Amino acid sequence: MTDTGLLFDPLDPAYIADPYPAYQRVRTVDPIHEHPYGFWFVSGYDDVSAILRAAMSVNDRLLEDGLVRQQFDDLDEGDGRVLALTMLDRDPPDHTRLRSLVSKAFTPRKIAELEPEIVTLVDQALDRMAEAGRTDLVETLAFPLPFEVISAMLGMPSTDRDRVRDLSGTLVLSLEAATDAETAKLITAASTELVGLVRQLIERKRAEPGDDLLTALIAAESDGDRLTDDELIAQVVLLYVAGHETTVNLIANGVTALLRHPDQLALLRERPELTANAVEEMLRYDSPVQMSRRITVEPYQVGDRVIPKGAFVLAALGSANHDERYWGADAGEFRIDRENARHHVSFGAGHHHCLGAALARLEGKIAIERLVSRFPRLALAGEPTGNGRSNLRGLASVPISVG
């Protein structure tokens, strides 16, 4: 950590590379931490769990004036402001209405129906790995799998996918704990362009409906309610971005953890029935999403501190998942047989519990199970490279050898 005088600095490359020492420091020194950058950082498991379920808002318009409010105002420009209509940014009853319309595509039966397609995509990726011998896990499997699945679910034309991938990578920078003015401009431009692409796609789908999620969302209705055009665009962008930007982290971070803990890899080979639990431990050990935001609508007491009304609160999922007071002295260890691994908070809780959790779990389980069983000599072939993000924290590259 650089010598900034801060308990932790979300812009510090050392923190971005490995935030867990900083989390432990915050939990020890000031677990309900009012950061000089303008946000409150809540780090303990019990406090984070309570905040995720509390009657708080996600509407940035309720923020009091300050550094964080200014950051949101900087992003609220151009056509990209439509994205403030996602269910991720709405409170009940609007959130309830939007989620009920979208969730019809994420029922257990609908997710289970995707398994054959996921298996096919994984096996095709593994075939390419076998042929290459050495490859990049992210480019060959971790990114293409969830990207292709959500693209197919939505009915996204293949001609648009490369550009959408680039734009979504910029858009998720808006979820960081802090951004600078230049990054805010890039995010605004990406948001505007992405909204335009999705608007065009919706027009094409209305003219030529298909058997896909986007067509279903266009027609979706509940109790006489339909999505407005802007609401439809916002939910499609959210599903597209959230549908792949997080699962790539689960697979890449999880496989890397396995390869760095050969005893756990050996245990998984010996007991493949642990795969589902191993995925839960991967979600706990190095969470694909490190923080969840809330905005207080009234003073909120947590521990011996009172967070004022209109404050921006970061519930530190990654820190909660390593809290020794909940997980025990081995909280920092990677153990695929951890009995309570599924108690992690990586998918959030309450109204905003991740809609795609079951899909992410299924993709992760199939990918890791088949990768480990296919390649008994699977190993790292170089040092993984981080993606440079502190919230959707993952790996940009994981060199592996399979032969």
Automatic annotation (TrEMBL):
<dbReference type="InterPro" id="IPR002397">
    <property type="entry name" value="Cyt_P450_B"/>
</dbReference>
<keyword id="KW-0560">Oxidoreductase</keyword>
<keyword id="KW-0503">Monooxygenase</keyword>
<keyword id="KW-0479">Metal-binding</keyword>
<dbReference type="InterPro" id="IPR017972">
    <property type="entry name" value="Cyt_P450_CS"/>
</dbReference>
<dbReference type="Pfam" id="PF00067">
    <property type="entry name" value="p450"/>
</dbReference>
<dbReference type="InterPro" id="IPR036396">
    <property type="entry name" value="Cyt_P450_sf"/>
</dbReference>
<dbReference type="InterPro" id="IPR001128">
    <property type="entry name" value="Cyt_P450"/>
</dbReference>
<comment type="similarity">
    <text>Belongs to the cytochrome P450 family.</text>
</comment>
<keyword id="KW-0349">Heme</keyword>
<keyword id="KW-0408">Iron</keyword>
<protein>
    <submittedName>
        <fullName>Cytochrome P450</fullName>
    </submittedName>
</protein>
